[in-house]
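Structure (tokenized):
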């Protein structure tokens, strides 16, 4: 039989049932081994920036660390003044001028400038003596449109050697030595000497001339010096070292 207090008893039973279900739900959630200490949406972590590397930009380190150094322009490939071999142990060349090469032939045996035999761009640097003399040196680097054109230009330079004549018809005792290969790594290096006695001068002149070919580039080098002042054992002319240094710059 139902009493007047039956609704209150019903509500109490309902509340007890809810609490019982809630406790079971909580127990299910808290007691689950897969949910303990796990963030339902874990935060993504990023590898520290210093451990992420991209293709490095070649830079100059000034050391022998093996870093790749690539000159940015053709002018950057010209020999630095300090890299040009001196005429003796105490000889240190001084800075000359650097810029685009002009139309004048370069070297005693040259017939025309390098642009006239196919070069698309030619740069030049000169080197002055440390004392008041007529000795001087220089380098030109020429860029050609392709390897075949550069090879033909190198052939032309050697043909000038074979047909070389005195800078002035009145000069005496003009002689041109044979071409000699110089170690140049993957490049091709050649050099020779030309000597003469200028009219009206008591001192003879010698020009050491070098040619370096590497791919689409050619470097031509010259050291003009007094004949009486400098003598070198075979294979030890400063031009040999200059060819080697220039070859490294063309690579």
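Design, position by position:
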């Amino acid at each position: 039989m139902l009493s007047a207090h039956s609704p209150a008893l019903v509500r109490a039973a309902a509340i007890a049932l809810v609490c019982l279900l809630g406790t079971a739900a909580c127990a299910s959630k808290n007691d689950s081994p897969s949910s303990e200490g796990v963030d339902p949406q874990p935060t993504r972590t990023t590898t520290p920036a210093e451990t992420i590397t991209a293709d490095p930009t070649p830079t100059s380190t000034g050391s022998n660390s093996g870093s790749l150094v690539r000159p940015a322009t053709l002018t950057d490939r010209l020999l630095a003044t300090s890299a040009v071999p001196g005429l003796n142990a105490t000889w240190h060349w001084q800075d000359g001028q650097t810029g685009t090469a002009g139309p004048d032939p370069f070297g005693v045996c040259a017939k025309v400038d390098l642009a006239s035999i196919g070069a698309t761009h030619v740069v030049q640097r000169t080197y002055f003596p440390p004392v008041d003399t007529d000795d001087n040196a220089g380098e030109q680097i020429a860029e050609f449109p392709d390897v075949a054109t550069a090879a033909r230009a190198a052939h032309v330079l050697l043909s000038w050697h074979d047909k070389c004549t005195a800078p002035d018809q009145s000069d005496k005792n003009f002689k041109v030595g044979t071409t000699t290969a110089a170690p140049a790594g993957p490049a091709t290096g050649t050099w020779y000497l030309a000597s003469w006695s200028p009219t009206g001068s008591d001192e003879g002149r010698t020009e050491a001339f070098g040619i370096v070919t590497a791919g689409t580039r050619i470097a031509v080098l010259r050291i003009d010096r007094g004949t009486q002042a400098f003598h070198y054992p075979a294979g030890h002319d400063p031009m040999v070292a200059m060819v080697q240094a220039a070859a490294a710059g063309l690579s």
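Reviewer-requested clarification: The first strand starts at residue 94 and ends at 100. The chain has a mean pLDDT of 80.
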